[in-house]
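Case study.
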Amino acid sequence: MSLKEKGAITGVGETAYSRASGKSVLALQLEASLKAIDDAGLTPKDIDGIIAYAPSAVVAEDFITNFGIPDLRFSASTPMGGASCVAAVQCAIAAISAGICNHVLLPIGRNGASGGRIATRVQQMPQFRTIGEFEMPLGAIAPAQLYAPMARRHMELYGTASRHLAEIAVNTRTHALLNGRGMMTKPLTVEEHQNSRMIADPLRLFDCSLESDGGCAIVVSGADRARDMKQRPVIVMGVAEGHPDSPSAITQRPDLTRLGLAKAAPKAFGMAGVTHADIDVAEVYDCFTYIVLCQLEDMGFCKKGEGGDFVMNGTISLDGKLPLNTHGGLLSQAHMAGVNHVIELTRQLRGEAGKAQVKDAEIGVVTGYGDMGDGSIAIMRRG
Amino acid sequence: MTAEAYLKPVPEPTPESKPYWDALNAGRLVLQACGNCGRVRHYPQPLCDACYSFEVRWIEASGKGKVHSWTVAHHAFNPGFKAELPYVLVTVDLDEGVRLQAPLRGLTDKDIRIGLPVRVTFERVKEGLTLPAFVVDGGPT
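After joint prediction, the assembly is written out as follows.
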């Protein structure tokens, strides 16, 4: 048995994104969830599975309490940082296919700007326990510092340059302006990127994602059931997660330029039965520009080391060969740990992406990336 | 005179890692080797992933290695590091076959390259805590 074509994204919802929501994390998650459930044409009591974002103060029990769910039949978490959401899609479809439940809610909400910042958050995550003992005391505190040696190694081996990373940042900003819901509201130029202050060399300020307040949620249902629901369904053709070698410490990884996604992508493409040429739009987890470049290689859109050249010359623009992060991503829309990437791919495949709509988008890919290199990937199609 | 508050994160040794930190405090770099099959590993962990033995033998590391990659921190994500900006962190292939990440002293990033030979030094940062750092091997001591 495979999960091929077994599940669908049937509802999506998001709150406004800001630097100071003034709301609790639970309220943000409930607000986004109600929108997603309504979008799916369901009521809150129809939700019988929840995969709460981990780590978060919000747990499945909070939704039972606030939604009055009489009999929640499935509760899980997929604690893989930014790879959690797409991995949770796999988990949800597995649970649905096994007959455990029918409609699984995947919520996230955070006060990432007004509350605890990234360096504080990762210290609370068990996935960072090893780093916490052996690297944080030496000065590798935040993801930018932990990931920078991967980017530096890539640059030294393959000639990748900051200018390549700028292309990703500028392109993503352009899309954020079209999307209109993003936190960033002004255009970004290559020069501004190249002149932005260094955070952790070679990563500059505009190579780094935003810190955001807000909430997102999606509803996953069985593909057969989805055909009779409110929205045109978005069918998950293939889905997989992958963990890198030495998942708890990048320092010890044999190949610093190879992420967990390199293991997951062949599985997802194989399950979906499509090739890279079939992909009309890509929503690729973009905590940092370099991580996007590396994932494009690890998915096989180009060879290892060729990501820099691949992203140049309009390839990743809206009318390019592989329109990328059409909502503005974590770099320019909001950091919602990639749930906003799943929302955007769903809208693209429904034909509801507004000014950023990719013409005739029928098949797309979305990825997650988290912790020290965990990866997840889903290939979806218009139902 | 009162000592300034130490703001940086401090390690919390576990039963598996305590010998590593104790050795650093004594000015030595040691690594875990499997007590059964001899495989060297870092960072310390309870089980050998090759033969599943819990037996551990601690070996003296040469402290020498070559730069595998690096970063230069220009932003302090913890106030304890603000005064040191910018600081270089190198990822080093130790001669023993595992890697160690630590600050590189006495060199700016313009002079760093993959393969640069380095050796470990020890920095007593507070009572009961010694951290490793690297200097260029053959460079000034």
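Observations recorded in class. Residues 5 and 75 of chain B are 20 Å apart (CA to CA). The longest helix of chain B spans residues 18-25. We will return to this complex in the next lecture.
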